């Protein structure tokens, strides 16, 4: 019995660790509303509309999710780059997210996708 309990506890611990490492879509949504909503329509029901007045209109997260070229990897590259190839002022600044924030926000964006 004792051995079983130790085994069960160990198993539970492993499962918890795995879950903790998975991207968290709900956290991603909260982060996106906090960090990205000043410029992007993160979701139609967000509290305040984006107030960004640059030469380029930031696409809504729905549009980003629906673009056929959008993948977890393309988002990863975009969000971790400094956009040094984009010389226009008014383009998106590097949001300086850490790895976990990046992963959670990507998971949120991809969850908006209508298609599988
Ligand atoms: C200061 C305004 C601003 C903020 C804050 C901002 N963005 Fe942007 N974003 C833009 C603009 C402008 C563009 C379009 C021009 C460009 O590509 O730089 C853009 C483009 C993007 C694109 C590329 C879309 C495409 O065409 O594929 C992604 C992805 C993106 N933003 C995600 C985010 C995420 C995630 C956050 C929050 C962590 C964020 N943005 C915060 C202004 C902003």
Can you put this structure into words, describing what you see?
With 116 residues, the protein is an all-alpha fold. The protein has one domain. Helices cover 51% and strands 0% of the residues. The protein contains five helices and no strands. The chain has helices spanning 2-21, 25-35, 61-66, 72-80, 99-111. The protein is globular and about 65 Å long. It starts with a helix and ends in a 5-residue tail after the last helix. The mean pLDDT is 80. Heme C is lined by residues 32, 35-36, 38-40, 52, 54, 56, 58-59, 64, 67, 75, 78-79, 83, 86, 91-93, 95, 97, 105.
Fold topology:
Elements: H1 2-21, H2 25-35, H3 61-66, H4 72-80, H5 99-111
Helix pairs in contact: 2-5, 4-5
Bound molecules: heme C.
């Amino acid at each position: 019995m004792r051995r079983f309990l130790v085994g069960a506890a160990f198993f539970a611990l492993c499962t918890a660790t795995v879950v903790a490492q998975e991207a968290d879509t709900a956290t991603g949504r909260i982060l996106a509303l906090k960090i990205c909503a000043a410029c992007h329509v993160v979701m139609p029901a967000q509290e305040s509309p984006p107030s960004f007045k640059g030469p380029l209109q930031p696409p809504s997260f729905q549009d980003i999710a629906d673009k056929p070229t959008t993948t977890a990897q393309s988002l990863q590259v975009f969000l971790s780059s400094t956009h040094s190839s984009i010389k226009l002022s008014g383009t998106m600044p590097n949001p300086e997210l850490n790895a976990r924030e990046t992963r959670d926000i990507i998971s949120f964006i991809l969850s908006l996708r209508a298609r599988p």
